[in-house]
Amino acid sequence: MGTESSVVIDAFDDPATLDPHKAFETGSRHPVLNLYQGLLGLTDDDEFRPLLAAAEPEATPHGDGWRVVVPVRKGIRFHDGTEMTADDVWYSVSRAAITADGPAGLLADVLLGAPIDRLGPEAAAAMLRRISRSGDELVLDLARPYAPLKHFLVHWSLVVSRSWCAARGEWDGSPGAVERFLNRGASALDDQANGTGPYRLEEWDRAARELRFARWEQPGARRGPAGIVLRSVDDRMEREKDLLAGACDFSVCQPESVQRLGDLGQTVLEKLPAEWSINPLAFIAQRVRPDSEFLGSGEFGPDGLRPDAFADVHLRRMLPLCFDHERYVREVLDGEGIPHIPPFPAPALPGTSPRPLARDLDRAAFEFRSAWGGEAARAGCRIVIATHGTNVSRARAAEFLADGLTRISPKITVEIFETDLPRLTELLYQGKCPLVWAGWASDFMHPHAFVSALLDPRATLPSALGFRDEVLSGLVEAARGAEGPLQEPVYRAIARYAEDQAYYFAPPGKISYMTYNKRWHGVRLMHQMSNVLDFSSFEERVPAE
Fold first, then answer.
1. Which of 38, 331, 423, 445 holds its CA 20 to 30 A away from the CA of 77?
2. Are 181 and 227 contained in the same domain?
3. In terms of domains, do 282 and 263 share one?
4. What pLDDT does 2 receive?
5. Domain count, the chain
6. Contact 206, 15 (CB under 8 A)
7. 246: in domain
């Protein structure tokens, strides 16, 4: 059968969109990064390589910033058979600047020198002025040097066909039409696709929760399986059973599945300790929206919490001291966890060790008594913890934190609110819950991805959480253009400052595994993106004669 075989993948969470300029969560990025390609890729050794670019970008000083020139490769065809041009590349980068808050915020960091909280007409116009085309080259005029540019282009320069999009009622690339398409709610690309990636979309059966893909061959591309079936299966035990029964080739399994799968000898268990993700991660809102239903009375007391309660560092420092880290590793992570320096995952800062984590209820009680000049301890509080109900590590993290909080004072009442991932994400980005247990995977493989998205007060999420810190802002500015030997110390300084201020909280994180049938080998992540498989990497083993 060889490469003409098909692969069935059991994942979780339905994709929200197939639009490459809107996709911002794992469920969508998984199919999108196999349907579309960017200007640069990564080799198996994680070195940069031109993909849709004809060569790596050249950056030269230009005014106070950089001028970046990217030659566009010829001979690449979209899935509809038409040839990709430099105009399509210009259009695609421009469309990314106007389509959705998340990707546009990342692009603003590159072009404007700072992320944006919300995508509006002024920010979109400012970005579009910095994107142009010269012959067969894309030209980007950056407001200031941006060291991780190549890392960014691997993941966030996905190319679509301008004419194909316009024929479906999407933006045609004209400046006068920008505002009509700004910050798209729904787009024609939500459930259609026409990229240059290794697989083209055949069908999205929403009722069956399945996406079907067929191999698309480009010159020099790796030949993967002829077809891919990507299924959304919520129940983790069902995903495990499918793998054991041979009903799927790859399954997203939880750490507690590892021993059962390994004992049966028919499954590859490939550990991913270097994955650029941090899970679980507690997001702490320093300023909750006053209209949030989770604040109760909105004042300290048995039924309430001040909207700015966690703006006091003592209340934030209380959280990790309440948590039984050793028990969590033992009971939830099968005895093995990775210590992170939140919000950085361990692989982002190699050689940097976090402060030892241990439950200390006496110190936690001291921090509680110190918060707000003693007001919180005198009046008490009610804390609601939101968590992802079907994610074991996150749901159990909420339980462990609730247990510790109630032990340090009888005046602390804790409630756990379990919900699905879309609702949890909505609460997080609206800043409507004091504590949210979720996770975070790298937007691109550079520590600045975490600085820009999770620590810069101007970015969407820190803004929603109420970050206001001039020291932190200064450190973020220092990091943005730091190159060569200057990068390591500035990112370590940011990590230590964020750790001291307890901006985020993470117990030891779970180690992910790739779990798949031994029929296959060579399976890898797409550009090392967490939870995003490279469909073309599946190679069928040749049976021994």
1. 445
2. no
3. no
4. 41
5. 3
6. no
7. yes
- Are 255 and 395 in the same domain? no
473 touches 503 (CB < 8 A): no
Q: Count of CB atoms within 10 A of residue 489's CB?
A: 11
Tally of helices (H runs) and strands (E runs) in the chain: 18, 24
- Gap between the Cα atoms of 185 and 169, Å rounded: 14
Say if residue 182 is in the same domain as residue 227.
Answer: no
Domain boundary, last residue among 164, 190, 216? 190
pTM of the full structure: 0.89
430 Cβ contact list (under 8 Å, min separation 6): 289, 464
Residue 8 lies in a domain: no
Residues above pLDDT 90, as percent of the chain? 77
Average of pLDDT values for 136-155?
Answer: 94
Domain hosting residue 266, numbered range: 199-274+512-540
Size of the chain, expressed as the number of residues it contains:
545
**Per mean pLDDT, which of 18-32, 76-90, 528-542 is the most reliable?**
76-90
Residue 144 tokens, joined? 């200031």
Token match 């083993």: residue? Answer: 541
The three-state secondary structure class of 79 is coil
Residue recorded with tokens 């194909």? 164
pLDDT score of 3 more than 60? no
**Phi, psi of 234, deg, nearest 5:** -70, -45
Residue 137 domain-assigned? yes
CB of 320 within 8 A of CB of 505? yes
Same structural domain, 104 and 207: no
Residue 370, pLDDT above cutoff 50:
yes
Torsion from C-alpha of 112, 49, 193, 539, nearest 10 degrees: -150
Q: DSSP string of 456-485?
A: -TTSHHHHHHT---HHHHHHHHHHHT--GG
